[in-house]
Amino acid sequence: MMPKVSILIPTYNQASYIEKAVESALAQTYGNLEIIVADDCSSDSTEQVIRRFQGDERVRYFRNSHNLGRVKNYKNALENLATGDWVVNLDGDDFFCD
To answer: What pLDDT does 49 receive?
Structure first.
């Protein structure tokens, strides 16, 4: 079996970018992956944008109960949310390309 890859997408108030980030992660051809969106208690429409992907079992959305800050949000996602054998980070305002 292929190792599982976790794509971590930590985000905070990046509603205008997050859809493209998730779409680029979903476009990967590797078959065994999970996409974790770690929302650091955004006050914009990030959560509503991510709802578009709720039917895809590869996408998991987590919203912190309070703002952890950038580094702690990364760390929390890595240590407590990722279940993959390998992890790659994709910032919420970035995207993968060919």
So the answer is: 98
> Looking at residue 4, what DSSP letter applies?
P
Residue partners of 68: CB distance under 8 A and separation at least 6:
40, 41, 76
Residue 40 sits at the vertex; the CA angle it makes with 51 and 90, to the nearest 5 degrees, is: 75
pLDDT digits (tens, 9 = 90+) for 8-24: 999 999 999 999 999 99
CA distance 20 to 31: 20
pTM for the full predicted model: 0.95
Instruction: Write the DSSP symbol of residue 26.
Output: H
As given in the structure block, the two tokens for residue 15 are 């509603």
Q: Which pLDDT score is estimated for 78?
A: 96
Q: How many CB atoms lie within 10 A of CB 93?
A: 15
37, 60 Cβ separation under 8 angstroms:
yes
Tokens in use for 26? Answer: 């979903």
